[in-house]
């Protein structure tokens, strides 16, 4: 078993030490989503909330807390475990109001547990300094948006009028939305079921026609939702649910549909719940993530002969024939889902933007010739950077005479029309994530 998973299952290791070990892994390139369950599962129910808050909160405030460590520690610290412990200690002192003794002493002890005694002197000194005048330090970082410099610069340039609202919103936890499997029951019926179980929730507008979704208004174990195991309901962000609704006019029983970059299958499942199609290809290049597509579709009862799940590279994959509808949920910087995946702000580098932009374009160029005349392609990202969204599509259209943007209308406060498509910004406290949507039609007669 990999070292980190051994640590997370080690009953002798304290919870703080486990959080530090997880952040150390993240700093070395592992994703939060691969570590969160292994961290939380062995922890007793009473401590889970504290551990969750300590981990997610530290990651959300990472760049704000870094301003303090940079000002107090003159040289860069080479050991990621010590860096993690500094941030975890500071987060407790400045945001969690943990008793000072626990915040300092227990964090220092945790670093010792991880065999990093050499970092304890520095950790102790920094935490004690901040502990003396916490308000001074809190004031220093309160207004900080906790964004890496490259992202702050890009957001300021793309969204000058929304920059502060975005900065404040991106460090908040995201709400949980449910997608009801329309083959099993309606949203209203499921809402009544939640009422019967005393689960607080709201029906929320999606900002497209009269479409709605359900937002949970209480902390809830998802697997314990009524009929979750029977496939009545899934977790899916509100703005992610727009995909299937936007395609309503274009999919019928004769349609051959491609869902490119489909894993873990949220949009694939929604398409299958909503439409009877001739065939759906669900393609992704990541075998592990594809196994989650299988699991999700099995739970929802959506596996049948109309569906092919294929492991392939979107820059090269060729369908057997022409496609009527293509969903390209393009790989992106995922800057629109920072609230759910705060590790992205630690992992992504400015160079990644150009790389993903090139990859998106390569996939687009491979898929476009495979779209039938009159067919539509829905381009989606969970990015809030214009280079991956509006600029990408404006440039694509300028190079393809047979492509035209189809108009549609989204109308929530932060669904913003672009030269091509719409940008949903994740600003509303109870609202959806940052997504971009553009709908293109192919017509050789233009
Ligand atoms: C935003 S996620 C997709 C989310 C998914 N559509 C859903 O709704 O659940 C992007 C996906 O792109 C896939 N991907 C990245 N590069 C790819 C490539 N070159 N070919 C195919 N899939 C790729 C990743 O494995 C990842 O699953």
UniProtKB/TrEMBL annotation:
GO terms for molecular function: RNA binding; rRNA methyltransferase activity. GO terms for cellular component: cytoplasm. CDD domains: AdoMet_MTases. Keywords: Cytoplasm, Methyltransferase, RNA-binding, rRNA processing, S-adenosyl-L-methionine, Transferase. Its EC number is 2.1.1.176. It catalyses: cytidine(967) in 16S rRNA + S-adenosyl-L-methionine = 5-methylcytidine(967) in 16S rRNA + S-adenosyl-L-homocysteine + H(+). The keyword Transferase applies. Its main location: cytoplasm. It is found in: Cytoplasm. This is 16S rRNA (cytosine(967)-C(5))-methyltransferase. It comes from Moraxella porci DSM 25326.
